[in-house]
Design goal:
The protein is of the alpha+beta class. 30% of the residues lie in helices and 14% in strands. The protein contains 16 helices and 17 strands. A seven-stranded antiparallel β-sheet has the order 5-4-17-16-15-14-13, sandwiched between helices. β2 and β3 form a beta hairpin. α7 crosses α12. The longest helix has 17 residues. It is globular, with a radius of gyration of 21 Å.
Length: 447
């Protein structure tokens, strides 16, 4: 199916395709739609989704009609994705216990959103950003932990593009071990992509998203390539009538076309890069990505909960955004990265790996820096976002408000799950980013 024909089919399938895209809730896609319910009114616990034996029709969340990506049902489905879509399991081993010393006073924190004159209370900021769960660690201890709606300590909440940072970290480990050559061309590992837009790109360019592709990732545009990719993944609900396009990750990636500027010219955020990186990792390791995640992250870092990851119709893990895990494990990973890849006194990741990522991000100058209104001066390295601020903070970020925030100077890690009605974090950053800094200021002042 040509790109033109494919986009025509997608356009003719509105509004279902927009609502069904893995990135775009219906309210974000249709200008005529009413304003979404606020964080309190859309509380999924109060709305009663999927309650009853059987649940009444109006309370059901069904993948075949794309309910799982339509707000406000997303506030339930993001905490129940493995009940809605096929997943592969990520196994655990011995738990790394995280010490707890819960701090009082978080209710006194005030958050001033970007561009606002008046501050919000901490509680109002949580609801205004549709928070599902928030955990703060300081100097290795959990000092704050909060769950809202239907999200609980053992809930496997979807992390969306935070998944990318796990894969980028694994790839960096393999480079340090000599198992992966960052300067090698993609087609040397994946001859299947020799005629695709990825041909001629290095593994490093894929990791840092400086590939030049004719591929758009605009979550609110039904003609964006991310919509077609969602259909190929099989996570967008029913296919539109007449659809004959790719139906697996491996079938889709060779269809991606090359751009006109040349690889390495500038940074452009494109999810398909991560799935190519994962394909390379899986090819080198000779194992599925969920097994690799278990062996390299979940077991050695002592994760508390088994996790799962969305898979395409032939069982290929969707690493561009399909990881589902519990909040404390999100924090465990962030804490391990803050410690330079250590679990307690044991070095798990190759020594110097995290410091190398930080140095590499700092070397990125005007090109190819990120250019987002809410992320001035940020750079992207190894599937992580680097703030280049006075605290040396860096982050894993996922749509609808998923995040790991690491502040090395203050020895603080923040893990967050959310279900904001609009996918792009540019809509959430004006509250969440000031919230993170307000938390840091509160903790470091000892309020």
């Amino acid at each position: 199916m040509s790109a033109v024909v494919g986009k025509r089919i997608l356009s003719g399938f509105l509004p279902l395709t927009i609502a069904a895209m893995a990135w775009v809730p219906a309210a974000a896609a249709q200008e005529a739609a009413p304003a979404p319910l606020d964080g309190r009114a859309s509380d999924p616990a109060a709305m009663g989704w999927m309650e009853g034996s059987p649940p009444p029709e109006e309370k059901r969340v069904l993948a075949r009609r794309s309910d799982h990506f339509i707000f406000p049902k997303t506030r339930w489905s993001f905490s129940h994705m493995r009940e809605v879509l096929p997943t592969a399991n990520i196994d655990i081993a011995e738990r790394w216990e995280l010490p707890r010393d819960l701090h009082a006073g978080f209710e006194r924190i005030e958050v001033t959103p970007m561009g606002a004159q008046e501050a919000l209370s901490f509680e109002d900021a949580l609801y205004a950003s549709y928070t599902d769960a928030l955990l703060v660690m300081h100097e290795g201890e959990i000092i704050y932990e909060r769950y809202l709606g239907v999200t609980k300590p053992d809930t496997r909440h979807i992390a969306f593009s935070v998944t990318k940072s796990f894969i980028g970290t694994i790839a960096e480990s393999m480079i340090a071990e000599g198992r992966l050559d960052q300067d090698a061309l993609v087609e040397s590992y994946l001859p299947e992509l020799a005629e695709s837009g990825f041909a001629g790109a290095s593994v490093r360019q894929v990791m840092d998203m400086t590939t030049d592709l004719d591929w758009s990732e605009v979550y609110s545009d039904p003609n964006s390539d991310i919509a077609a990719y969602s259909l190929a993944l099989g996570i967008a609900g029913q296919e539109p009538p007449g659809y004959t396009g790719p139906r697996t990750i491996y079938d889709y990636l060779p269809t991606v076309k090359k751009g006109s500027e040349g690889h390495g010219t500038r940074f452009v955020y494109r999810t398909v890069n991560t799935d190519v990186l994962a394909w390379i990792v899986a090819r080198v390791e000779g194992k599925p990505l969920n097994t690799i995640l278990s062996e390299r992250i979940w077991k050695p870092f002592g994760m508390e909960c088994a996790a799962d990851i969305l898979v395409d119709p032939i069982g290929t893990p969707f690493v561009g955004g399909g990881l589902n895990l519990c909040l404390r494990d999100l924090a465990r990973f962030g804490e391990a990265i803050r410690l330079g890849g250590r679990r307690g006194d044991g070095q798990i990741l190759p020594e110097g790996l995290v410091e190398g990522m930080i140095r590499g991000a700092a070397l990125i100058q005007d090109n190819p820096k990120a250019n987002y209104a809410t992320l001035p001066g940020y750079s992207y390295r190894s599937q992580w976002w680097f703030m280049n601020d006075d605290h040396g903070a860096f982050s894993a970020r996922g749509i609808h408000g998923q995040a790991i925030w690491i502040d090395p100077q203050s020895e603080i890690v923040i893990a967050r799950f959310g279900s904001h009605p609009i996918a792009g974090n540019v809509n959430i950053d004006p509250i969440t980013l000031p919230t993170y800094r307000a938390i840091v200021d509160h903790v470091t002042r000892g309020d």
